[in-house]
């Protein structure tokens, strides 16, 4: 196999596909699916019935990323609740996340927990971020006191993962403390994923239209394979916000699917070896 054969963008593959990118990062596009790992030829490949197209991938390259399932967003008495928003809507993600974790454990995927842990002195936050969560002087913003402690502050009740998910956490899981909506900004998430050989990220959590979507976009910008688990995400925002994220997950950033589609991925066998690639004519 010549290395030059895998460096030609949009090269035709021997089985009628089209190559995207090059070398070990290449995809193969077909009429009825996208192969995210054509260089993996020996066992373990799964076909996921996602939108807009099904995709084939190796579980060895995947991680489940769970974002901001914290009391301040999802529990009574938390920040969302105190702000007059519907924290119950955020809780609708919990069953899907529980199911997704079970599947991830069965397939031995990495589980990544991403959550806000702000400094008590708030020196990690600039004015634009503070304003985005406090539009009126009377509002309680990040770091300010509620009945059960400071909002989204390291060590506070509000910053803890909800009780429904705590028993599912493991010490060996990856834990990422963030101070912006995106789980990549100012954290070591990218380095940890790359050193563990993770290429495909399955996203779950809240809010789908804020912290989930910005993290998914940043993953896409960094050339990770991004997959939204639709029913393992939720938001207290209006429904059209969720709809826009699902649309863009499918059209722009990667793929979307339900947790049950994730759970029922089918074994996939490559029809032929990826030893040669035809050049476009």
UniProtKB/TrEMBL annotation:
Keywords: Hydrolase
Source species, domain of life: Bacteria
Gene Ontology MF term list: hydrolase activity
CDD domains listed in its UniProt record: cysteine_hydrolases
Isochorismatase-like domain ranges (all copies): 63-261
Pfam families attached to this UniProt entry: Isochorismatase (PF00857)
PANTHER family: FAMILY HYDROLASE, PUTATIVE (AFU_ORTHOLOGUE AFUA_2G08700)-RELATED, PEROXYUREIDOACRYLATE/UREIDOACRYLATE AMIDOHYDROLASE-RELATED
The name this protein goes by in its record: Nicotinamidase-like amidase
């Amino acid at each position: 196999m010549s290395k030059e054969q895998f460096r030609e963008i949009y090269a035709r593959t021997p089985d009628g596909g089209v190559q995207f990118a090059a070398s070990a990062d290449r995809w193969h596009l077909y009429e009825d699916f996208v192969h995210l790992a054509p260089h993996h030829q020996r066992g373990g490949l799964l076909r996921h019935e996602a939108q807009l197209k099904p995709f084939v991938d190796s579980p060895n390259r995947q991680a489940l990323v769970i974002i901001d399932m914290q009391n301040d967003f999802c529990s009574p008495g938390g920040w969302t609740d105190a702000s007059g928003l519907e924290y119950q809507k955020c809780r609708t993600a919990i069953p899907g996340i529980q199911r997704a974790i079970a599947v991830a454990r069965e397939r031995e995927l990495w589980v990544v927990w991403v959550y806000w842990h702000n400094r008590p002195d708030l020196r990690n936050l600039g004015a634009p971020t503070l304003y985005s969560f406090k539009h009126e002087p009377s509002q309680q913003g990040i770091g300010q006191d509620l009945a059960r402690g400071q909002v989204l502050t390291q060590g506070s009740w509000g910053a803890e993962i909800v009780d429904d998910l705590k028993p599912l956490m493991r010490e060996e899981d990856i834990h990422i403390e963030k101070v912006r909506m995106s789980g990549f900004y100012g954290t070591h998430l990218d380095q940890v994923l790359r050193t563990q050989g993770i290429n495909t990220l399955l996203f779950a959590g809240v809010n789908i239209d804020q912290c989930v979507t910005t993290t998914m976009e940043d993953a896409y910008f960094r050339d990770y394979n991004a997959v939204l688990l639709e029913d393992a995400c939720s938001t207290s925002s209006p429904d059209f916000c969720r709809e826009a994220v699902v649309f863009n997950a499918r059209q722009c950033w990667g793929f979307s699917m339900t947790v049950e589609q994730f759970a029922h991925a089918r074994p996939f066998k490559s029809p032929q070896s990826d030893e040669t690639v035809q050049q476009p004519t």
